[in-house]
C-alpha cells in the first residue's frame, strides 16, 4: 500500500485527494524491531518509507470496518465527519480503489473479524454511479481469490484487476523474507506490478493491458485476472488513475448560512458544513468563481486506500 501511495503522491496527487484506511499502525507497533520505521526492502539496502514519506492515515484502528468502507464509497456520513474522511469525487472523477487483505470466494475480511461481501461492494459502486460520484473506477485488489470480488460488480465504467483467480486459495504471496525482521516486507504482486510499470516506460506510458501482459503466473504463484467488460474503452492508461491532470476547471462557489440549533442529527451525503469557506481546503483564497489548476488541486482524481484484515488500502483519485 505504501508504495502505491508514494506513486500517487509523486505523480501530483495531494493528500487531500487520497484517503488511507489502516487497521494497524505498523511503524509504531511495539513488535517492530525498528521503532517508527517501515521498509519495503531490507533495512540494509533501502531507506525507510516512514516517517518522512509515509501517508497520512485518515481512518485507522477499530474505525476501519465494513460499514465505514461502504459508507465511504456510497457517500454516507454525518455532518460532523471531517473532510479528510470523505470522498469529494464527482461525475468527472477517476477513482482508484486499492484493497489488500484476506479474502475467500465472494467476500473479504476487515480486521479478521468482519466479513464484507462482494455483492455489498458492488452495490456501493452502483450507489456511486447513481449519485454521480465517479467517471471511471479502477479496482485493484491484492487478496486470495481476488477475482471473486470484482466478478460481482455490475456498474458501468469499472476496470478490475485482481492478483488471483476465483478458484485460487492462498494465492497472494509475500516476495522475500528479511531475516533481520523475521518476516516479509513486500508481496509478489506489488513487486511485479512496479516492475511492469517500469518495463513499459513508467506510469505515464504504461496501460492496464500492458501491465496485465507482464504478469508471470509462475513467478506470482497465482493467475491474475483482468475484467474490462464494464468499460466503454478496451484499455486505459495507468496515469489516468495514479496521476493528476493538466486541465483547468472553473469551480463555482456558492455559500449560504446554516444553523445547527434544533437540527436533528441525520446522516446525509449533502453536508452543508463542507460548503462553508472555513471548511474548504485550498491554497488560494476562496472566491465566488475560482480557477483551479489540477496539478495543485486535481479535482478529477481521487485515491482511496483501504485496509481490511491485513491491509486494505483505498486510493481515490479525483
Give structural attributes:
disordered C terminus; 318 residues; Rossmann fold; 8-stranded mixed beta sheet
Structural features, described:
It is a single chain. With 318 residues, the chain is α/β, with parallel strands linked by helices. The chain has a single domain (2-255, 265-278, 288-317), classed as Rossmann fold (3-Layer(aba) Sandwich). It is built from eight helices and 15 strands. It has helices at residues 2-10, 66-74, 118-130, 147-150, 188-199, 208-214, 217-220, 239-242; strands at residues 18-22, 59-60, 94-100, 103-104, 107-110, 114-117, 136-142, 158-162, 174-178, 183-187, 225-227, 248-252, 289-293, 301-307, 314-317. The strands form four sheets. Strands 1, 2, 3, 7, 8, 11, 14 and 15 form an eight-stranded mixed β-sheet that branches. It has a three-stranded antiparallel β-sheet with strand order 4-5-6. A hairpin with a 6-residue loop joins β14 (301-307) and β15 (314-317). α2 runs parallel beside α3 and α5 (188-199) crosses α6. The protein is globular.
Compact overview of the structure:
The protein has one domain (2-255, 265-278, 288-317): Rossmann fold, CATH 3.40.50.1460. Helix content is 19%, strand content 22%.
Amino acid at each position: 500500500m505504501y508504495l502505491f501511495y508514494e506513486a500517487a503522491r509523486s505523480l501530483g496527487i495531494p493528500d487531500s485527494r487520497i484517503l488511507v484506511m489502516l487497521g494497524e499502525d505498523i511503524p509504531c507497533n511495539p513488535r517492530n524491531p525498528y521503532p517508527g520505521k517501515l521498509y519495503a526492502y531490507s533495512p540494509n539496502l533501502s531507506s525507510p518509507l516512514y516517517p518522512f514519506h509515509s501517508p497520512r492515515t485518515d481512518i485507522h484502528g477499530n474505525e476501519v470496518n465494513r460499514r465505514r468502507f461502504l459508507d465511504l464509497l456510497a457517500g454516507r456520513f454525518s455532518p460532523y465527519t471531517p473532510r479528510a474522511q470523505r470522498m469529494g469525487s464527482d461525475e468527472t472523477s477517476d477513482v482508484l480503489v486499492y484493497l489488500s487483505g484476506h479474502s475467500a470466494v465472494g467476500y473479504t475480511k476487515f480486521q479478521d473479524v468482519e466479513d464484507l461481501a462482494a455483492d455489498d461492494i458492488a452495490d456501493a459502486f452502483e450507489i456511486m454511479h447513481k449519485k454521480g460520484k465517479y467517471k471511471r473506477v479502477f479496482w485493484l485488489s491484492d487478496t486470495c481469490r481476488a477475482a471473486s470480488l470484482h466478478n460481482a460488480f455490475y456498474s458501468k465504467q469499472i476496470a478490475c484487476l485482481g492478483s488471483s483467480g476465483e478458484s485460487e486459495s492462498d494465492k497472494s504471496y509475500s516476495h522475500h523474507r528479511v531475516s533481520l525482521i523475521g518476516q516479509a516486507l513486500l508481496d509478489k504482486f506489488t513487486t511485479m506490478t512496479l516492475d511492469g510499470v517500469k518495463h513499459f516506460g513508467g506510469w505515464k506510458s504504461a496501460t492496464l493491458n500492458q501491465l496485465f501482459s507482464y504478469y508471470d503466473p509462475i513467478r506470482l504463484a497465482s493467475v491474475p485476472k483482468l475484467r474490462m467488460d464494464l468499460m466503454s474503452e478496451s484499455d486505459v492508461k495507468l496515469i489516468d488513475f495514479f496521476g493528476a491532470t493538466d486541465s483547468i476547471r472553473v469551480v463555482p462557489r456558492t455559500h449560504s448560512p446554516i444553523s445547527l440549533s434544533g437540527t436533528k442529527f441525520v446522516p446525509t451525503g449533502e453536508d452543508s458544513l463542507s460548503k462553508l469557506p472555513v471548511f474548504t481546503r485550498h491554497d488560494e483564497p476562496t472566491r465566488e468563481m475560482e480557477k483551479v489548476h489540477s496539478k495543485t488541486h486535481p479535482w478529477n482524481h481521487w485515491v482511496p486506500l483501504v485496509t481490511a484484515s491485513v491491509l486494505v488500502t483505498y486510493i481515490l483519485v479525483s
